[in-house]
């Protein structure tokens, strides 16, 4: 449904159907830690285990949260627009991999 990868965090909007949020984060950690440790050598852990979850009450709430999430790279001066940020599902390169919010919340 949507994601933004930032220098110090990953923001994801998802509706877990097969695994729990904790299992999803654990899977992401296991899949990315070896690559990230090689790409960005440092002594601190890549994943700190802190998970923040927020329930979305419906389609409009999800749209507002996704819009705020997509604006984060602009606020952090990483991009001029959400679509230009390479590490966000707002970028069209990920269009075929990200499901629209309406699929999960209806219209």
The biggest beta sheet is recorded as: 2 strands, antiparallel
Q: Tally the helices: what do you get?
A: 3
**Class from secondary-structure proportions:** mainly alpha
- Identify the overall geometry: globular
Helix content class:
25-40%
Query: Strand fraction band?
Result: 5-15%
Distance from N terminus to C terminus (CA atoms, Å) equals 15 Å
What does this structure look like?
The chain has 107 residues and is mainly alpha-helical. It has one domain (2-105). The protein is built from three helices and two strands; from the N terminus they run E-E-H-H-H. A two-stranded antiparallel ribbon has the order 1-2. The protein is globular.
Q: Could you give a short description of this structure?
A:
With 107 residues, this protein is mainly α.
Provide tags for this entry.
mainly alpha, 107 residues, 37% helix, globular, single chain, two-stranded antiparallel ribbon
What's the layout of helices and strands?
Layout: E1 2-5, E2 10-13, H1 21-39, H2 59-75, H3 102-105
Antiparallel strand pairs: 1-2
